[in-house]
Amino acid sequence: MLPQHTKLDIITEKNAWDRILKNIQTYDVYHTYNYHHATKHEAHQAVLLVYTTNTSTIALPLLLRPIEGTPYFDATSVYGYVGPLASGNLQPDTLKDFKQLLQAFFEKKHIVSVFSRLHPFVAQTAMLDGMGTTTHIGNVVNIDITLPVDTQRTLFSKTTKRYLNKCYKQFHVKTGKTAADIAAFMALYYENMDRVQATKAYYFSEAYFQKLLESTDFDTQLLMAIDNTTNTVAAAALMIQTNTIVQYHLSGTNAAYLHLSPIRLLIDTMRIKATEAQCTHFNLGGGLGGSSDDALFNFKASFSKDFKAFKVWKYIVNTEVYNALVTQNNIQETNDDTYFPLYRKHEAD
Q1: What's the pLDDT tens digit per position in 51-62?
Q2: Alpha-carbon distance 262 to 266, whole Å?
Q3: What's the rounded Cα separation, in Å, for the pair 332 and 202?
Q4: What is the pTM of this model?
Q5: How far apart are CA 60 and CA 30, in angstroms?
Q6: Which domains does the chain have, with CATH numbers?
Q7: Percent composition of the chain: helix, strand, coil (DSSP 3-state, to 5)
Q8: Burial class (CB within 10 angstroms; exposed 0-12, middle 13-18, buried 19+) of 179
């Protein structure tokens, strides 16, 4: 039987957003109000859709985007690992009612499609079953920091241990605090994006980095590997801790030091700090585009074989309008085309 007093609220104000997350407790940086407002385009609206009964809560953060030249919108997630969060007693009737109210919201707001990256440490598929598809894109690498520090290290590959032994001799790690430190990190990060020929979406603004470092919703640490001899910044990384989850968020390595792999030192430093802080997960992420079979993924897997599934949610709310938009934008769909929503594919080119 469905609990009484069910409703779906649209939260856009920070205090209410924060209150919902704290009541649910299990959330990450990518679910927070501050992260949404650090990353969103000015034309997009960040919302937290909150379904409540007298025994349960489901919260789904999304960005609502206008579809240019039309009266329609679509919804997407921020860059990161997002998806719905829940607390309480989620019975089948509760989930059915949640989906009905969510569907009604999408239709009322003229939303054509919904896309969200999901969180590898949160059970989410039951909340989305029957609404589009959840697709396994690849795996992410988690370091199980509930294990003793020394036990964690025994799981490293021989290659990573060898690099770390050299790095601990040649570099020291400092926490970046100054404007000069942020500028040095940004230069290395952009250099890395150039090297891998990343799309424009990965070239985040200075304001984005500044907002992450200043936020009190989560703890962003800028770790920097400094050459002991020359005082050169060899590598830098943004690590973000929220509750008991740590994310290896973004990083960059000086091209002159790539052969020494100083980024491994920063990961190892954060691993030890997170273990001491009694965190539970340290997510290194996956490969390029979610791949579990490329050099980036293999690098991360040299720290741990605790792989977690990375999934995305794709839902076409209005098939007729969706197909019309694909046709209108002159997009030819191929059998291996995974871009979603397809009518925005030209924006990624």
Answers
A1: 999 899 999 999
A2: 7
A3: 25
A4: 0.94
A5: 11
A6: 7-131 (3.40.630), 140-309 (3.40.630.30)
A7: 40, 30, 30
A8: exposed
